[in-house]
Amino acid sequence: MRDLWTALALVLVIGGALYALFPQGMKRVAARALLVPPQALRLAGLAAACIGVILVWVVRRCVSEAADVGAAVIADAALLP
């Protein structure tokens, strides 16, 4: 649950930073979004969500495996005379 709150907080940080740093650009993006058909927005949102899920899975898996390898190396080193 802690990871979920962290992820939501990062969404706010990144979104807020974009509006703070590029207010005119964000207005242009919002205006263009009004011209895009709803089906295209829906498809883009679904694609972004799927890519996000895959990225989270890959990062979690790689970090977990790296931690396991690191722990094994440390354990092996502890056994050396």
What descriptive keywords fit this protein?
81 residues; mainly alpha; 2 domains; 93% helix
Describe it:
- It is built from 3 helices and no strands.
- The protein has 81 residues and is mainly α.
- It folds into 2 domains: 1-35; 37-81.
- 0% of the residues are buried.
- The model has no long low-confidence stretch (mean pLDDT 87).
Count of discrete structural domains: 2
Helix content: over 70%
Low-confidence stretches are none
**Shape summary:** elongated
Structural class: mainly alpha
The proportion of strand residues reads: under 5%
Radius of gyration: 20 Å
The averaged pLDDT comes out at 87
- Helix/strand order: HHH
Our measurement of the CA-to-CA distance between the termini, rounded to an integer number of angstroms, reads: 43 Å
Largest sheet: none
Care to count the β-strands? Answer: 0
The number of helical segments is 3
